[in-house]
Amino acid sequence: MIWKRYIPIAIVGFFGSLTLFGWFIESEGIKAFIDDDATQWYDIIASFAIFLGALNLLKLQFLKVLKQQSGWQYSVVAIVSFFAVFVIGFFMRGAFVVDIPNADVQSTYFTQGAAEEAVNQLKDSGVTASITPAQWGAHIQTEGGLFKWMFDNIFTPLSATMFALLAFYVASASYRAFRARNFEATLLLLAGIIIMIGRVPLGSLIPSWIIMYLLVLVLGIVVNTYFKSRELVFIVVALGLLGVTALFLYLDSTTVVDIFNAFITGGVISGFEVLGSWFTGWPINQPSIFYLPALQEWIYTVPNLAGARAIMIGIGLGIIVTSLRYIFGLEKSYIGDQ
Amino acid sequence: MRFLENIIVKFGSVDRRVIFVLIGLAVLVPLLSPVDLAIRPTPSSQKVYDAVDSIPDNSNVLISFDYGPSTRPEIHPMTLGIMRHILSQDRGHKIYITCLWPDGLYMAKDALKTINEEYDLVEHEDYVLLGFRPGNEAIVKGLASDLRKVFTVDAAQNPISEIPMMEGINNLNDFQFMFTGSAGYPGTFEWVQYGADPTGVPLSSGTTSIQVNEVMPYVQSGQLKGILAGMPGAAEYEKLIETPGIAIQGMAAQSYGHLVIVLFIILGNLAYFITERRERKY
Amino acid sequence: MGNQRGIKYGIGILVIIVFTYVLSNYHVALNFILRRWDITVESIFNSDRAFLFIVLLTVIMVLLNEIRNARKDSDSIFLRTIPGLKAVEEAVGRSTEMGRPILYVPGIMDMNEVETVAGVIILGHVAQMTAQYETGLDVPVARSIVMQAARESCKEAYLSQGRPEMFNEDMVHYITDDQFAYAAGVNGIMQRDKPAACMYMGKFYAESLLFAETGNGIGAIQIAGTASQAQIPFFVTACDYTLMGEEYFAASAYLSRKPELIGGVTTQDTVKLMLIGLIIVGLVMRALFDLDIVSFNLLDIIG
Fold this sequence. Notes:
Chain B has helices at 2-11, 16-32, 43-53, 72-88, 102-119, 137-145, 147-150, 188-199, 212-221, 230-240, 246-281; strands at 60-66, 94-99, 127-132, 177-182, 203-207, 227-229. Chain B is an alpha/beta fold. Chain C has a six-stranded parallel sheet, with helices on both faces.
């Protein structure tokens, strides 16, 4: 009972208090313990604990193969891979560098035999070469070596593939979950769309006047939903569209008179050219509140950050209080004491 | 109208594999057939650029590769961009490379291989690859107090004492700028808390897009000199240094991917509204 | 009672401030006494961190007091309903009816993370339920030390329910340390074993959405809890219930109703109120300082 219960609690309490209050004490020894030793002790324990995990993994995979349970073939792959990498990393260098000094050329071979064969071939051609095995430790990252080959051709593609799955899963999760069921969900949906489009170069191509026209149409939908009056909707939408157009008339240097004159003096084609350039000459990023990249930046740095800070404070408090419970022995479930 | 509504309602319950295929195509096609899109640097990327620009001549710069192959597409262009920026200035800067992740060592080797093709660097004169050490934040703390206790040899097992450019380098205070390409733990937070804050050495960071939220308070408080946020941040930095790379190439793919997601969200919501209205009607 | 408590805490904070002051300056008095023998002592207290020391002692004071109050009368303390935690028992019941196991993922980090420890604690409660309902439990882990701790937690849970024969060490098993290899392993377990309920309680990174979407694909009920801020949106989007931030740390209090743990939850709320007060005071003081109405800057003291 003492070994199982009180001693672990005492250890946690002592080292927890030392690490916590030691931060306020000016003592080289305590500082060295907190800054270096404590974390290194933990890493050493965790490193040795890997044996427990590895043995457990092997045991379960072997049992699966022996009992021929569903998917046992994958267990064979797991066991073979485990031992292959173990042997290659610890017992085979896998990196023998053949060096041609005069030509400043180097080639790396997986085995000593292959390297010797290459040297012999070069010798037959009258070229002197030497073999330098990679140093233990450096052999895992020697260019052209077996371990690096495995990392580049097996581990990297597998890791990248798993991470790439997120792109698909984000799409399907967003599609399924982003529904405007209520006000908060709608706000989340709109913010998500603005951030997604505003964050990429495509967003900077969308002029603010398109957003303003869209907002006018959305306002029309909202008015129709609540007031169900066609006349009111028409008035709101018409005024909105005219208002946005007037605003950009003001912002653009080309005037209606210029367009009119172009039609009168230059003919229809010239008139439409000036009309087109007037339309496309509207400033793309004014007013900035409706320009997606600027709006995205604001959402990111103001409301999003405010919410994130609040959550971080809450999480920080949770961590402090939970840690204090462990240190003072108030919480003992981690040693199985319910 | 009814016909259009029925089509939209069908979109509301499309099999997710259809979405997967369309996302795949939206990302693949621009990669195979590149499209030029205008990149606009954001203030946070500009801050990183300005921080690197303002490093004094003949400085020692520490770059930490704290990411692996899974996040390589996002962060590798950042570290390459930073290294290119530092080297293109030709102001006598020296680069010191550490890794808090074991995979980071391979990322660093690949980055050096790429940079060497452009700049013909000499190891131990222009750069030194110190390598990976296990210990997470203890390594950063160790570097802040005594680098030579943490690294006695470099990644190729050469003693630190025999490397010319390690002379006078004893801890983080001997560096004039630090950059970390970080994909999680250990990474940006550890460098800010145990590296930059205690020593006052300017630190910038590049992170995955999802981490930017958590790191932004440090940027706002000035503890981080700007941040490169995901692949858009990497593309912005490539634009600032006027050296297009894989990040700019990838932005078209990302743009179209986002567009497809947004279109599906809009269609899904339209289907939802139509279905709701029909259910209320009947 | 609220006023009484406020006054008590106010006095407590004053005492802590005085104590901290004494701690920062005790060496002055000591040197005065010892100067006759030419002895000088340096303070071992880092007075640059005095404000944080005051905050720490305040939190400890509030925690101990709230636990004392909770021990006297925990039933009167109101804990709002957290739907995710109510759903845990439903999820276990659903799994029992369907004859399928429960998958519990305690995060991908090690026991040095508070979130992981909290996840192992919640696992204990879930294991008690699975022991009671005789439902299968599968706990794949990414760290060896977590495996040991989780095993202890499950073993004790099954023992406490009088079902030691139902406990099997291999229900908690190690997969791998690598983030995405672990995600692939867990996804494979989900696809093969098709658990009826999936619970994700701990510290997660990018693999969170991989778990949640795969769980969604197999039709499992999903309950997530994490303080990893970046992953909360993914869990909220893809899971049925999500415990966000503080709710996650309050989970063990909610499930066990132990006074010590309930006291911890009320401590969080009390300290939060104090922080809000401090933020408002700081804001006002800083504004007055910037307007030259007062001459001292509160933020210089806080540091």
